[in-house]
Amino acid sequence: MKILSPLFVLFVLFSNSLMAEKGVAFVHGTSDNTDALNDYWTPAMVNSVVAGLPNSSNYVVINCEFNEYAWTSPAAGCLAEQITNFINNNNIDELKVITHSHGANVMRWILSNPTWDSRYPAIIATTSEVTAIAGSSLGTPLADAVVAGNVFEQLLGWILGYASDAVRMQQTSWMVYYNNNWLLGTSGRPSLPVSFKSIIGSDVESAFWDGDSYCAGYQYQVALEITQNWLDSCSDGFLNCSSQAGAGSVWFYDTSRTKGREPLSHQQSRRNCFNLDTILRNDL
Amino acid sequence: MITNKIIKSIIFSGLSFFMVAAHANDALLKSTELTSPQQALFSINNHRETVQFSRAMTDTDFSKKSQTQPVKTESQEYWFRVSGNDLKQGVTLDTSGVEALIRISPKSMHDPRLPVAKQSAPSTNLAIDLEQLEITTPSGKVTKGIEAMSFHANSKQLETTPFEKGTSAFKIDKAHATGRYQLKTSQSIPDKQEYLIYVLDKNSPYKLNMTLDNQQLFSGQNMSAKIELKKSGITTNLESVSGNIVSPGGKVYPINLTASKSGAFKFEEPLDMPFANRAGLWEMRVVSETQGGSSTIKRNSKLAFAFQPKTARINKKSKQASPSKAGLTNAVNISVSHAGRYEVTGVLYLVDRNGTAKSIAEARTAKWIEQGSDKVELLFQKSLLPALKKGQKFKVGNIGLNDQSRMSRLQ
Lengths: 284, 411
Hints:
The structure holds 2 protein chains of 2 kinds. By secondary structure, chain A is α/β, with parallel strands linked by helices. Chain A is 38% helix and 14% strand. In chain A, helix 4 (73-90) crosses helix 5 and helix 4 packs across helix 6 (120-126). Chain B is mainly β. Chain B is built from 2 helices and 31 strands. Chain B has helices at residues 26-29, 84-89; strands spanning 7-12, 15-21, 51-56, 71-75, 77-83, 91-95, 101-106, 133-136, 142-144, 149-153, 168-172, 179-185, 194-200, 206-212, 216-218, 222-231, 234-236, 240-246, 252-255, 258-259, 265-270, 282-292, 295-308, 312-314, 320-324, 327-336, 340-351, 357-369, 372-381, 393-403, 408-409. The longest helix of chain B is centred in the first third of the chain and has 6 residues, at 84-89. Classes of the chains: A alpha/beta, B mainly beta. At the A-B interface, helix 6, helix 7, strand 5, strand 6 and helix 8 of A face strand 3, strand 5, strand 7, strand 13 and strand 23 of B.
């Protein structure tokens, strides 16, 4: 036994190094984050999803500056850095990436431009699938409305009423350009190098008497119901369904899988509302 | 010399096959001269490592959806700025559809006495209180507060939206006619404070359509734009259109749009603005006005495009394709006017005996290149290459060139 024990330890270590290590990365949307676990996703959502992993500690919640253009160092560069560290530190060889909103565009930037940065090819090789929840793949008319009316101030040399670069990028005609020239996976373009499937949020409910309107915060539901005025009837309050379905393949529309066939607003689709967390957990 | 032949017979992995290195698209090679090396350009990607990538690519349609792709938009909205004093005196707005959505946002103001960092952002204190608004309808009825609104949201309710702080919004009740309205506030707001009034006339039959023939332009290349007003899908005469081109940094270049016999307005001129000093797209923005019954049909519209320097081109001589231990390599020679990170892309086709080509893989290589000429080598990894059957051959084609430092799609 004394002789076997070290060999056994070596065997276990060797076996572990050969076993596939599955991991999950949660990629937030348009915002600068230092604590996306608490501020963006919530631990309740993340912990519920990662319970489906063989090793539930194999996950990373990304914290980057996604108010910048997708290709910049604080955005895609930061995402690449954090994913690379996660892969290396945990010997991950099968990575599932779950994105929300504009996070899909930043991830798609990496997948579409493998030679931009020497870290990208290894990320692509390790990523088995991207699940894009409410991805802003075709941009949003809301971004056009937000940026409208900005004026250039000659004395300042800058734009007044300036929205973030990420919001500018998500204007619809901007995304037409980026999709046609720098991003893959939209209609008529070459496919992405990994599976990219979308979850679509199709409506916002904000009836004060309906308890479902309170999941993820009632005030957000009210605000998103207002912003829905800029959008199609099929929208999550921030994005049209067509944009969410604009890249890769559609996995499902919210009401086809959620508990009580509830729609997922743009706020609710990053929280554990209506069994979304369970659906994601079971997909790991 | 065998090396000068386009078609070469080679031995690779014990199999005999033909391989063709296709010419880069000759039409693309005829594009404009390179940007003068003396011209200072920004660089957003300064990575120095050479990165090669290849993957299986089975898309049957690998046609590049870029370069000459037209882009269109249709607008049912317009916006304008007014001062706090204007709002207190009363401002007019026109609608041509029921339930128009009105958004009022206080805007940032430039104080010349303060540095950029200390310029104030709009605040909720400057929000327009809808309860203190007086709306005069086209029929002359004066309504108070939210009486004429079918829907309204104050700045607190809009706090979590991406709109500027202090934004409030409402919809005109459909019981009221379309036409000219007046908005007036009894609120105490600074006279000089600027507000943006944004009208989304979603149920209007009028749409301003704007089309750019090409969303990607080099200096000296013609920009072709068409602006037309449609009423229920039928082109109607546009009375006036003004426009400008706005750089990624916000510099404004006025343009002249000309009326055509069809009632549309057009812009067709070569672009010669100085290149921007930051990343991002340029925009063409237009404002139109046309009389339509009891009101004026106002529309704003904008479309983005890339205006980019021509910093590199593929040289015609780069027509080599050869096997290597790692797979199949294809060297592409390029000339470069500005140091930067350049990417060459290519597609590997399997061509059958009938000449039918099917894409099987793509390869990309990016490297840092100083001003002058250099070679970029594409590598299609061995694992991507199927064993050739009799009469089959490989062909490398659809060669592309990108400047990753300036984010320019060059060829």
